[in-house]
Design a protein that fits this description.
single chain; alpha+beta; two-stranded antiparallel ribbon
């Protein structure tokens, strides 16, 4: 569970409580995956990984605009692998 500082994620209601969550993402254990992991860490340190959204009057932490693979399978349609373009696309975003 990693939460980004509120001041950096565009909190819609500063000072009000919000719910966190458990967030998991997967990268291949190879050179490209390790390079991507370093870039994702930098994005996290700069408060770019998560955002706070209001849903039904409740603020919640959600993924930000950086695409993450949240499943090992299911393909691109389910935020999983295989997705031959993912590492190139996420590095472009980062």
């Amino acid at each position: 569970k990693m939460l980004s500082p509120c001041s950096k994620v565009g909190d819609p209601r500063p000072g009000q409580p919000y719910k966190g969550g458990d967030f998991y993402a997967f990268l291949p254990d190879n050179r490209e995956g390790q390079k991507t992991a370093m870039l994702l860490r930098k994005a996290f340190e700069h408060g770019l990984t998560f955002q706070i959204k209001s849903c039904n009057g409740e603020e919640r932490v959600t993924w930000g605009l950086i695409p993450h693979k949240t499943s090992w399978d299911g393909g691109k349609a389910r935020n999983g692998y295989p997705d031959a373009q993912y590492l190139r696309e996420v590095c472009t975003v980062l």
